[in-house]
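look at this fold:
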Amino acid sequence: METAEKERAEVTFKKDQKIYAGLIGFGTVGTGVVKVLKENAAIIKDRLGCELILKRVADKDTIRDRGVKLDDGVLTSDAMDVINDPEISIVIELVGGTGIARTFIMEALERGKHVVTANKALLSTQGEEIFKKAAVKSVDIGFEASVGGGIPVIKALREGLSANKVESIYGIINGTANYILSKMTNEGGKFEDVLRRAQEKGYAEADPSYDVDGIDTAHKLAILINLAYGTYISLKDIYTEGISNISQHDIKFAKEFGYRIKLLAITKSIDGRIEARVHPTMIPAAHPLATVDGVYNAIHLRGNAVGSVMLYGLGAGMMPTASAVVADLIDIGRNLRKDISNRLTPLSYTEDAVKDVTIKPIDSLEIPYYIRFLSVDKPGALSKISGVLGAHNISISSVIQKDRKIGGAVPLVILTHNAHEKALRSAIEEIQQMDIIHDKIVYIRIEENLGAAN
């Protein structure tokens, strides 16, 4: 009886305590974090078991009205006011980038603070250093918001699917690129025009290169691969290709063949090697990923025990991303209440199990391809093209030639059976030199059986 009463007293004491957090970066997502903490304070307290208080907020701009009110003395222009505050247990980094943000995180870890960040660029390039520092200091780091905004894919990989060997991941994880491709598919228009409209609506940055060139997607894929396979992959090992070369021709032909074009992050584990690639991909129109439109994200995973799992939701934006940040705060707060840390390692693998993996080079890829030529419409043109393909052991499954203009240039589209990427590139390079070709040849990879067992 005495032991039970003591345990109940300890629980009561824990409920009366407060956990203090500090925020560095009061931009869009930072504002969302403040809103979530204020609007959902009661439910957070009920779930956490104590108050979660945002004690300090640091930002260079202390004047701008963000639409949320902070108590007097909370806002500061000096990030070190957050990091050095002895009452603050958790530091939230929402500055972004790989420069000063790294300094803030490392300073916080050095002082024994737990960290929450949404910084995919930093974690995908310097995550190993940051995670090892957290381990040395016996503190936790939460990064759910770094991939997929409010979609809990990090937690799914670290915990929910931890009993599985991850066989494949296919992800639509950049809302800007998905918005552009969706608009091109559903409403028509050239890439440049749709991009401009996306910028006007605030869905694309003034410099959209990180999004449309696939770089942002590659950052997020690196994090997913690290979690799925217990490794630290370099960005240079991820083949990355953007969407700027996709035209209405490709969109329309894809529809005719029963596909839709998506910018996909793809990783697979095959025979001990890992595929790591980002590129426009034709996928069957009937697959759930093909129906993900606009700024929405989706991640399709396959585990050897669970089978196929798909997570879907808003992959960016103030409130969805803030939702993930605050969820990490609550997770760390629960650990603090139990006086524990490092219950879960950042990669969900024990440190001695983290290993290097062999990356399968893009040249060794063997899948079907879509190839679009702008060819002179005269007898023998198709025969010449197919002859070169055949010489490189590339067999044709379908051909479409439309809008015939005898003597003029017309689109000629070929779908191949499974072909080696290296052979395909060699064949295209050879065909490109022919006098029957009037423009740059376009090819797009096809994924037929997304999520099927390897």
Q: What stands out?
A: The chain has 15 helices and 19 strands. The first helix runs from residue 2 to 16. The two ends are 56 Å apart (CA to CA).
